[in-house]
Amino acid sequence: MLEKLNLIYFDEIYHLMETSFTPDEYRTYAEQKALLQLPNYQIYGMIDKQHHQVQAFIAIFEFERIVCIDHFAVNPAYRNRGIGSKVLQELMAMLDKMICLEVELPSDELSQRRIAFYERNHFFLNPYAYVLPPISKGRKSIPLYIMTSQRFITEEEFQTLKQFMYTKLYHQKDFTTVKDVKNKNFKINEKEGIAYGIEDKRY
Length: 203
What we know:
Aminopeptidase; seven-stranded mixed sheet; two-stranded antiparallel sheet; 5 helices
């Protein structure tokens, strides 16, 4: 059963972040731990009570009308048992509001499998270019896509959500410069140095 995790599990959770994500996708230890002081930031998880291990965790920012997943990972020792799907389904049932998350571009088999996993769990891939700003000092920006539960979002909704995330999650005004984006799913407005999805007809 999904439960709210307390501070005693943080070191184990952070280790899972380090082994599950690239360094550009998570904050420093101190910065990540400091988020627990925010009233709208929570870490939920499933615990193996017998072995006192975290089976999976999902860290979220919860707002009035939307939930943003910050990190989600399953302990390698417990993968391929349906735990990841169970975490998502229980979270959606518990919160009963739209949930959004960031995913890598479908540039290889692994990233395509991750997207397919979320699609099987009723998330929708929105075809608009999005850039994760540097999440911490020394980190790099990452071109990503946003997936949402319940339904696809319109481009107008996406732009609103993007600005909301930049402001509330990353404390950025508008981070859209992506000099290193070379994926075929993106095209570049050279004058502005901004990336847009292939579906964006403005450029």
